[in-house]
Known about the structure:
- This protein has helices at about 5-20, 40-50, 60-65, 65-80.
- The chain is mainly alpha-helical.
- It has a single domain, classed as Orthogonal Bundle (Non-ribosomal Peptide Synthetase Peptidyl Carrier Protein, Chain A).
- It is globular.
- It starts with a helix and ends with a helix.
Amino acid sequence: xxxxxxxxxxxxxxxxxxxxxxxxxxxxxxxxxxxxxxxxxxxxxxxxxxxxxxxxxxxxxxxxxxxxxxxxxxxxxxxxxxxx
Length: 84
């Protein structure tokens, strides 16, 4: 991951732990679905969208299987200002 993606991943972990009180001690490449139920995962995606001011589609969320995937997607969207 790039430095920006690492920073995004770190912030996602903070959001999960501090704001949502989720147990997300997953490695960057570990599937989020193995750590979070669907409601917790949806809550995380919404909180991430709010924090980084990006919009993620259902397909985006489905394709972001790991924390690293989600961080890459968010970093790319935030850098480009891309909204679906």
